[in-house]
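Lab notebook, bench 4. Still working through the backlog of constructs that have no structural model yet. Next entry is a single chain of 398 residues. Request: give me the structure tokens for it.
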Amino acid sequence: MKRSLFLVVVLLLSVSATAQLSLSWPASQATEVFSNCGGVTVSVVVHNDADTAIPAYTVKFRRNADYYLASSVRSLAPHSSDTLPLFQDAGLQPASYHIAVALLDSIDSIRTTIQVVYCRNAGIDSVWSPQPHQTVVEGDPFPVQVSFSNFGYTAVSSLYWLVTNVDGAPVLPAKSLSAMNYGETVSDVQTITIPMGIYGSKTISITLQPNDQFPADNIATIPVFVKPAYNPQPLSVSTVSNQCRMSVAPVSMSLINAGGRTIMAGDSIKIGYSFYSVRLGVPLSDDASHHEEWYVLPNDWNPDSVIDIVFAQPANLDPSAWGVDISLRLTGWASHLQDSRKDSYDTITSGQEFVALHAPSAPIASDSHIPYASRTVLRSAHSDYFPKYSYADTSSAA
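Model written out:
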């Protein structure tokens, strides 16, 4: 926030014992500021406190680190005063200047600090709303509240301000401001809406027009985060694991409403899942391993709240077609019809591998007659080439 800068005068006044001269500032320099509307003139008043006239006098003065001399050849009558111009500078830039004045060959001095300001300078003082990095929701109105101040020396009028939205277009027509005298501050507010389809980290610009002698304070930028209005986002997806012939594998998913609006009961979201083989690196070819469906919300789904959903259709993960056990990963996704990202889904892939075990076919064996008290080798075969270590003689009575 800019502060109004005032003229601070520190007057150290003493009387020369010899010349009986003293110094003071003229009444015109007792104001708070000096403007550079037509240049800056600084003078000092020399007083003759003696009963005799002074034929001439000289004063020395310093502006910041620079030393100067100012002389007067005029006679100064007894008990009279003279105003001596120290300097006039049309190009003096707005800043604080320290002025020290003393009579030549004397320790008597006076000091002051002058504040030079622009002649015409209105600017943005503070942005009260939105705050930097504040979260706003696409499509929802929110206020932009700004205070403006007249930092210049003269009154200003015919000002207006506008807000440039995150997409670069003015939100509303420029709005007029009331006239302001020096040091006066006014506040104003406009309500804007971020268009649908714009989300993420964006910047709102506030501009005061027309530009004046110091345009740097005529614009302010505020970073904001624009949250999508509708954004169902999966948190996790899972199914059963390590079973044989998973022809019916229920799939469940947890989702958070990451949008800025409540999704009402009776509204629908689109959800889906897909399995792919970790070993083969490709999705399963069975249609049942890639599925989408519409889920109707039974209750209102508020922002930042979590729901758990079980898909109506389970997955068919029977790996018999491969003839081997397979490791799988599961991906789930969700979307809403009013999600601004029409061509994309929020997805989640399970970090857990799901192992689908295939059941081998029955072994192929033939009965063998084993004579009493003799030895033989029992053999069996299997189409999957799995070794088997059991044998049954179906013709044996015991």
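Notes after review: The radius of gyration is 44 Å. The chain has three domains: 8-117, 122-227, 232-357. Flag for follow-up if needed.
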